[in-house]
Amino acid sequence: MPISTELPTSFRMNTGAHIPAVGLGTWQAKPGEVKDAVKHALSVGYRHIDGALIYQNEEEVGQGVKESGIPREELFLTSKVWNTYHDRVAESLDKTLKSLGTDYLDLYLVHWPVRLVANETSPLFPTNPDGSRAVDRSWNQQETWRQMEALLETGKVKQIGVSNWSIPYLDHLSETWKVVPAVNQVELHVYNPQHDLVNYCREKGILLEAYCPLGSTDSPLMKDPELLRIAKKNGVSPAAILISYQVNRGVVVLPKSVTASRITDNLKTIKLDEEDMKTLNEMAANGKQQRVNTPLFGWDLGFHDWYDVGNKDAPSPDAVTVKA
Ligand SMILES: NC(=O)c1ccc[n+]([C@@H]2O[C@H](COP(=O)([O-])OP(=O)(O)OC[C@H]3O[C@@H](n4cnc5c(N)ncnc54)[C@H](OP(=O)(O)O)[C@@H]3O)[C@@H](O)[C@H]2O)c1
């Protein structure tokens, strides 16, 4: 049988519905930038936008969607319930729907398996008197998921999934889930490929989504000599290799950009040969393992590399730059 050189443009989820393989990330896309980024993306062929309540830009994302003129049913919109809403998931969803100006989401995720308790310090990033995050350590994530499952019956969400869920956390959730998460959105790039998690999710029928695929802001990846060599060999940019890598391994990828030319380029994925995939797959194991997004929740999220690589006290862009 001839080997296909075509890459998929969408993946099938365990619900039977399809999700576009490349989606536009919107975290840190600032007010005044994100509407145009969304509009441009939709004008050049994107149909998938990844957002979240905590990005605090959903209203502008919604404006971009509206001004694009693309019919709602052609779009795939994702958002995420924020940590301070684990006891009020439906309320978090309604806020997002209102901001986006739509009456349903294609995919709704639990952003983190961590409940924060809103208090007078902040409704979104509450802290304790000692400055640590106000985490509710007694909260059972199975309860958050039960509320997510209930949302399916309202028609306001087509698919539900999780984000930042490690294998032990998924095992715990699987004890009571009635609906298997459609996706797990986690940090995935060549310095953090998480092959064990990818294999585990594949076995359970959970599709992976790669966040920070380019290594996020001030990426440590882009100057990697092996990556530059593979980019040169294929006649494309390093970013194109990093994005294509995920699609080649069957993972949805969510590059963020507010730069029109990059948004256009980031949709162009290429088929990588076995040798390049092997090099990219093995980079982390060959001494380059590194996370770029490590929020200071003061909470073990069950990722075995998390505390092993000296990131324990690293500031998180997610936690530091998003102001409550
Ligand atoms: N679930 C979660 O907890 C979670 C956490 C983090 C991220 N996410 C999602 O994943 C998305 C992607 O992650 P991310 O935003 O952290 O990082 P990313 O997509 O890995 O990297 C974004 C950075 O790369 C730059 N860039 C984009 N395209 C480029 C290109 N072709 N060449 C060179 N540089 C390029 C962007 O700059 P410009 O914008 O200036 O062009 C920006 O500085 C987020 O936006 C969000 O939707 C989810």
Structure description:
By secondary structure, the protein is an alpha/beta fold. It has a single domain (10-321), classed as TIM Barrel, CATH 3.20.20.100. The protein has twelve helices and ten strands. Helix 2 (58-68) packs across helix 3. The chain is globular. The protein starts with 9 loop residues before the first strand and ends with a helix. 44% of the residues are buried. Residues 308-324 have low confidence and may be disordered.
Strand content: 5-15%
User: Termini, distance in Å?
Assistant: 55 Å
Could you tell me the CATH topology label: TIM Barrel
CATH superfamily (homologous) name: NADP-dependent oxidoreductase domain
Ligand kinds: NADP nicotinamide-adenine-dinucleotide phosphate
Tally of individual helices: 12
